[in-house]
Fold:
Amino acid sequence: GYPLDAVAAFAAMVAMAEMDSDPPRPADSILGLFEGEPGLRHLSTQDAALLRAVYSLPPDREAHQHRRQLITAIAKPLDED
Structure:
């Protein structure tokens, strides 16, 4: 009963973002698709920013540099909204 694009967005978040349950997901995240929250059918602005940031990380950096770049990349689009 879920649209294919919603399931694909959920799968992208789970596979690429490697999220765990601590801290809990944001309230409007596609990660709540199968938790019965009505209206969750699309990536939120935060979801999209996270995926763009993960995809844009250069693979040849140390972990602490990845974290800094990821946080900066996610915060930038959210500041513009």
